[in-house]
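Limitations

Structures in this collection are predictions, not experimental determinations, and the ligand pose is part of the prediction. Treat each record accordingly. The example that follows, with adenosine-5'-triphosphate as the small molecule, is included so readers can see exactly what is and is not provided: the inputs are given verbatim, and the output is the predicted complex.
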Amino acid sequence: MGKIIAVANQKGGVGKTTTSVNLSACLAALGKKVLLVDIDPQGNATSGIGVNKADVRYCIYDVLINDISPVDATLPTEIEGLMIIPATIQLAGAEIELVPTISREVRLKKALEVVKDKYDFVIIDCPPSLGILTVNSLTAADSVLIPIQCEYYALEGLSQLLNTIRLVQKHLNSQLAIEGVVLTMLDARTNLGLQVIEEVKKYFQEKVYKTIIPRNVRLSEAPSHGQAIITYDPRSRGAEVYSDLAKEVVGV
Ligand SMILES: Nc1ncnc2c1ncn2[C@@H]1O[C@H](COP(=O)(O)OP(=O)(O)OP(=O)(O)O)[C@@H](O)[C@H]1O
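Predicted complex:
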């Protein structure tokens, strides 16, 4: 049965999309069947994996609002074993449009129930907010993976995220677990990152992955070429660390 992992942190720019795309691609490279779900209106995971948004017929908005089947909204990617349900800017209106709908928090869960069993992993790239789209993702998920950037304000805002997770566990999804915490964008030139790692480890203990994602220019270039790092530059440090992270997630 497929495992659904929401990649979430309401803080912007911490590496949610980079982690969602590259973890998904590396899981597929390990032979897993993976569905990447882009539920961020910016649609960066969609373009980052090479889908031209102008060519998208149905996106996650249609699944959530127009009752389009997730099967019809699923597109192949250039990576074998990796499929995507894309997002387009249409999704920006969904937060408001979902408000008057019945069971608005469980719409993604219901949709993913239809396709979950076809995949080993479903990875959801959440938007930088704790609104209804993130709540839908946490409600649909078996677990949540939290990227935290190795910077001075790393832990700021985490209490709101953990509070939201607790509320979802209490009212919507008692099974929701913390999958793990991945530290991102470590800058080896300063000591600050190492101090942040210690702080985050004190807070999340064994939930912190051994793999730490360094700043790597190839990781920031790959999305503009519509590629995951393992196809854009398979020999880069970025490809190496996301492959290591995928192995940790699989439990190798
Ligand atoms: N390890 C890394 N090394 C270098 N650049 C990175 C790395 N991880 C992410 N970036 C860059 O940092 C920026 C923010 O990353 P990303 O889009 O993954 O964050 P996000 O949390 O998804 O952002 P948002 O909150 O806007 O959805 C992007 O330009 C990305 O290319």
